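Good morning C.,

I know you're traveling, so I'll keep this short. The sequence:
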Amino acid sequence: MWTRIALWLVLIAHLIVCPWLPTPQAVAQPAGAAQRSTPPEETLQDPLGRTTPRGTVLGFIKTAQAGDYERAADYLDARRVPGNAQELARQLKVILDRGLRINLDFLSAKPEGDLEDNPQANREVVGVVSRGGKSLEVYVDRIQRGKTPPVWLFAAETLGKVPEMYEEIGPPWIESYLPKPLLDIHFMSLSLWQWMAILLVIPVALILARAFNRLLIPVLRPAVRYLTKEQDDRQLARIAGPVQLLMLVVASYLSVSLLALPFLVRQFWARVAVTLAIIAAVWLLIRLNNIVAELAGRHLTHTQRAASITIVRLVQRLVTATAVVAGALVFLYAVGMDLTAALAGLGVGGLAIAFAAQKTLENLFGGIMITSDQPVRVGDFCRFGDQVGTVEDIGLRSTRIRTPDRTLVSVPNGQLASMSLENFALRDKIWFHPTIQVRYETTADQLRYVLAETRQLLYAHPKVDTYSARIRFVGFGASSLNLEIFAYVLATDYAVFLEIQEDLLLRIMDILERSGTGLALPSRTMYVTRDPGLDAEKGQAAVATVEQWRAQKELPFPDFPPRRITKMAHTLEYPPPESALADHE
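The tokens, ready to paste straight into the viewer:
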């Protein structure tokens, strides 16, 4: 799949660069036709497009590559150089094809040239050609002759050294081993052997990339297994695609450098290589970022620090976005765009975007605040506004929460950051706070019995926080005597709390039943038979117990003495002996 993507990118790059390449129509055009392919502002000044350094170099290379050396000589300041100007143009073309390594996008496109990088006025440095210990500095000079507008021409200083460098360069070494027909047959400025070599470059590069990837996996496998603690190669398989694409770029670039291709063709392949290299580098960085985030998440989960996973996810997304933006900027720089002006434009445009995207920025900073402050984390059950749910993901724009109805609610981070959040997952214990409504027929001593026994239950229960537990007679209701219980259950999971609450309520019902009273009904009751009344025997037993406490001066009001509370703490057997969980506990 990635190979097909690479080929599509090659096609795109070809469409970008193809205006540089000469066409059969360009070869057959007459002298005046050059004006039609020149921008309007250059047409008024020079028909050959020599008003800028880039226009001169590009125009010369296109014209010479088309074989029109008579016109190519018009790009040379050859009046002070002895010899045939057309032959000099041919030799310069060979030198530029074989030895010049520059990016035409970085040559100045201004009529005055690049005044910042070139201290000498009216001169532009194109590049340096080195071969056999000798070097040729290629200059273009801005020259004005008569009343015509000034134009840029290849400097006489450079042209004087062209014959010597041409003899040093000579033909490509591979041509001495090739049959003459492969050298003599040309199509679009390329010889037949060069076309054959170009058609072989991509499959050979693919084979070399796959071979390198197979050699790389055994080398990296021990390190990856040591870091991931896994015995498979899943992590290596995830980086195989970008690594192969990088190797494809390297292999293609090295192969093309051996083919002695014309300058514009090399420029085309250089742009393709740079484009694919940027894409491969960004792709590899994103894959490595995802792998690191996944491994960090596993480590945090194993070390009981799952709360930090949200920060890892946020950093992962920021790194991915940064990699994409950086790759785009590097690509724009590689194709010759002035990033200074682009960044300045982004700064001015950024203010306008900031005003237009206030909500988006508010949500972005809200996500950062939620991630750093951590009022809620992924997996927490919380209340937000009038809804409750479990946090499933905290993104850059919104937070997704799964409700008990299994619906997914997306809340903008800006709104969530300013909202009152109740996080149930951070509870260290759960509040047990029922109100027991007892019948009005209950006597005071019966009520004392219920209070004392319930209080003793709360102190003795191993799943209740002893020192926070209390029960009080708080008032007379419309149809009941109200007893308020306040205690914390030592549980954080709500399902476990419900089990403990159920046990406590059932034990309180047993206490009410033993005291001879019962729960009040919040409704009017019409008795059609004789009311048997309360159990007199049980009532007398409860009263006798209270009388015994009073006689022994052990009446537990307003509370049991501290030594008695400490003695009673956690003495109740829980779960009950008859419970199926008793042996397990």
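Safe travels,
E.
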